[in-house]
Amino acid sequence: MSPDLRIPAELLPRDGRFGSGPSKLPVSHLDALAATGTALMGTSHRQQPVRSLVGQVKAQLTELFSPPDGYEVVFGVGGSTAFWDVATYGLVAERSQHLVYGEFTGKFATAATAAPWLADPSLVRGQPGTLAQPRAESGVDAYAWAHNETSTGVMAPVRRVDGADHGALVLVDATSGAGGLPVDLAQADCYYFAPQKGFASDGGLWVALMSPAAIERAQRIGASGRYVPAFFDLPTAIENSRKDQTYNTPAVATLFLMGEQLRWMLELGGLEATVARTRASSDTLYGWAERCAWARPFVSDPAARSLVVGTLDLDETIDYEEILAVLRANGILDCDPYRKLGRNQLRIAMFPAVDPDDIAALTRCLDWVVDRL
Question: pTM for the whole thing?
Fold first, then answer.
């Protein structure tokens, strides 16, 4: 290891945080949170200050994503991991299909497989670094995949499944994709995410943009007699969200920080502008990797390379841990590969909060470090 190597200051990014989650959080948002004082933090989430914040975030998300008429923004406590269970209890009627092409797409499939009240799901698998495609199947009432597979840096399109049974839902995990990837919400019934990635906030919440069909499905299952623990009760979450509140005590600071990031995104120009920003970052990263002698994009299909999480395979003569040690010693953080993938790899977040100029600076730092190792 050579962590004592000092990268020249003129090469360093202005902000060295490139983690895939939790992600870079602008310091100005933390300053704004501190300035709220006791008017917001430490007060009841049933009272107007917090309910106004929930209503504000709902309005901001609606403006950012421009969903079709009838779609609703629904909040719950627990993050995307909790929402997989919410969906197995409250959105899958009998049988789901899951595209599995990485760790997180696999986790939702595992939850559905373990649910004894559901039939075994249909699984369509792709090798890590590749994209699986949905296929219509009779009897499948919910199709599920991730807009962005955070573990591998694979980006998937959001679209209806041709030939699917009438009324089948499309459930898209957008945890690392929302806010940084283009999307037409008319192509999905439930586009759900947590705020600690593209929305530069903290964890502890799930957010779902739900179509009228998804809301009707949730209410129908809720009235069917199926046992659902209170924590995963989707009709209750819908009812509370309509009142600008959450059923359980929310992470108020998380909501506030998300609201600050949404304000910045909308002032920047909305989803079109944030996607232009992630596209600029990813063009820089992948273009550099394709020219590099010792690194290459892990995802071979350019169309499937994520705009928000870039994965780079390294030559076998290069030790990613040694690179990471030098980077961290110089204030460049969290470029680690996904641990369970087990590859000699770097993984670099390019969420909207990450400055594209900092991605360019990172590539220069990588060249400098490897030249000296």
Answer: 0.96
